[in-house]
Automatic annotation (TrEMBL):
Keywords: Oxidoreductase. Belongs to the aldehyde dehydrogenase family. Residues 15-472 form the Aldehyde dehydrogenase domain. InterPro entries: Ald_DH/histidinol_DH, Ald_DH_C, Ald_DH_CS_GLU, Ald_DH_N, Aldehyde_DH_dom. Gene3D superfamilies: Aldehyde Dehydrogenase, Chain A, domain 1, Aldehyde Dehydrogenase, Chain A, domain 2. This is Gamma-aminobutyraldehyde dehydrogenase. The active site is at E251. SUPFAM superfamilies: ALDH-like (SSF53720). It holds the Pfam family Aldedh.
Length: 475
């Protein structure tokens, strides 16, 4: 049975959901794209038990064997990139050309990287620390069943960030995609069905409070990994403190500050923000969404940003000239519009690009000149909206940035390396870019501080996060 749009993937089989039916929309058209039946409580239990059973064998496979499976998945993703990209583009409203060339290539790269990294994990040390015993060994073992909860903004890429390190390390997973965007992961499950032993990856669809909550609360789950909202992060922490204590790995929201010093290269900055602020319609947890600019350059920068925003092309994702598409849903459109309307009503200067088409959930790219205390500077908007606030001295900008509840992405712009490094060192953010923004490397860790969560995605660090350190002493 084909998975596409209608099924769950449990123990290597595509099965029809027995729970509530969720309508999945195509945001560029405001039209239904598929009906996906959610997992029932019994099916969630089956998926977790299938993962638990599969783990016994999978955890004992050598890194070489697990690596071979991940490399095969990477090759299969590349072979099906066009189909997967079309599904992702329609369901998430992303420009097709970017999904094909960028996101799908990154999905394959993530599986390939973790397939390679697991063979390069150094063997932990052995030594003798007591005269009464022969030796002590340290092992890095899989944790067991990992419940993974993915968001809608990069449905397949975030799923890859979660699944690849977890299974490379020898765990088995039950992953729940967002109820808004389950289709690409269901399509990718056909690859899992061909390559992985049954039960190593299971996919259950449905809403957060219903299917997600039941999954993260299951007693056989040993670790919960979430990419989502801060509120959902709190629900995960509560579930982790249930009868069976669970590990957690949280990638939550962000509100990335862009600190622009007096000597910054403004043209390079504006060129970078064209993508760093507006890619994916700004629905990115590291989107460059609030600029703190030195007062001596704020006017020149505002003029350049207005010109850039006026030239941004957005619209239907299948067009090959668009830089971004719609936001994900009617609710998100209303939310973004609410932030901008309140900023305008509060006296902020609002500048917008070309008016939005009305057939999809489109929002015009927007620049808001706002004081530091404005809601639009403090809260995560998650849309194509950028704010600009002047500062008089760098210390003030640093204090503003660090006062945020969030601590994920940030950037500093200055031609003086020492000044830029000093600011970067003092920022309480998991990722800081200097004279660039939003550039990722699979080999480098990605994670936050404070309400942005903890735990690393990508890099060897993520592989380590999905393992358990153990001590064995030989008497
Ligand atoms: P969300 O938290 O509403 O949903 C994320 C996932 O959590 C969905 O699959 C949802 O169904 C599930 N969920 C919701 N309530 C749940 C519950 N009680 N139990 C279990 N699962 C539950 O967030 P979203 O709207 O899908 O995603 C946007 C948010 O994610 C933004 O805040 C964004 O910043 C954040 N995000 C963070 C990163 C990162 O790397 N830090 C990456 C992408 C998105």
């Amino acid at each position: 049975m084909s998975a596409f749009g209608t099924s769950l993937f449990i123990n290597g089989e595509f099965v029809a959901g027995e729970g509530r039916v969720e309508t999945v929309y195509e945001p560029a058209l405001r039209k239904p794209m598929a009906e996906v039946a959610s997992a029932s409580k019994g099916q969630i239990d089956q998926a977790v038990k299938a993962a638990s059973g599969a783990c016994r064998d999978w955890s004992q496979r050598t890194p070489r064997e697990r690596s071979a499976a991940l490399l095969a998945i990477a090759a299969a993703v590349e072979a099906r990139a066009v189909t997967l990209a079309e599904v992702e583009s329609r369901n998430a409203g992303k420009p097709l050309r970017f999904v094909k060339a960028g996101e799908l290539a990154n999905v394959a790269d993530v599986f390939r990287y973790f397939g390679t990294a697991v063979r390069n994990m150094p063997a932990p040390a052995a030594g003798n620390y007591r005269s009464s015993v022969l030796t002590s060994l340290v092992r890095r073992d899989p944790i067991g069943v990992i419940a993974q909860i993915a968001p809608w903004n990069y449905p397949l890429l975030m799923a890859a960030w979660k699944i690849a390190p977890a299974i490379a390390a020898g765990n088995a997973v039950v992953i729940k995609p967002s109820e808004l965007t389950p289709l690409s992961l269901l399509a990718l499950s056909e690859v899992f069905a061909e390559i992985l032993p049954a039960g190593v990856v299971n996919v259950v669809c449905g809403s957060g409070p219903d299917v997600g909550q039941a999954l993260i609360s299951h007693d056989l789950v040993r670790m919960i990994s979430l990419t989502g909202d801060v509120r959902t992060g709190r629900a995960v922490l509560q579930a982790a403190a249930g009868p069976m204590i669970k590990r957690t790995h949280l990638e939550l929201g962000g509100k990335a500050p862009v600190i622009v010093c007096e000597d910054a290269d403004l043209d390079k900055l504006v060129e970078t923000l064209r993508e760093a602020s507006f890619y994916n319609a700004g629905q990115d947890c590291t989107a460059a969404c609030r600029i703190f600019a030195h007062r001596n350059v704020v006017q020149a920068l505002t003029d350049k940003l207005k010109a850039m925003i006026g030239s941004l092309v957005y619209g239907r994702p299948e067009r090959d000239d668009v830089e971004f598409g719609p936001v994900i849903s009617a609710r998100q459109l209303e939310r973004v519009d609410g932030f901008v309307s309140r900023a305008r009503a509060g006296g902020c200067d609002v500048m917008q690009g070309a008016p939005a088409e009305s057939d999809g959930y489109f929002f015009s790219p927007t620049l808001v000149a706002a004081p530091i205390e404005a809601e639009i500077v403090q809260k995560e908007v998650f849309g194509p909206v950028l704010s600009i606030t002047p500062f008089a001295d760098v210390r003030t900008a640093l204090d503003w940035a660090n006062a945020s509840e969030y601590g994920l992405g940030s950037s500093v712009w200055s031609r003086q390396t020492e000044q830029a490094m000093a600011i970067a060192n003092a920022l309480e953010y998991g990722v800081t870019w200097i004279n660039t923004h939003g550039v990722m490397a699979t080999e480098m860790p990605h994670g936050g501080m404070k309400n942005s969560g903890y735990g690393s995605d990508l890099s060897m660090q993520s592989l380590i996060d999905y393992t358990q350190i153990r001590h064995i002493m030989l008497g």
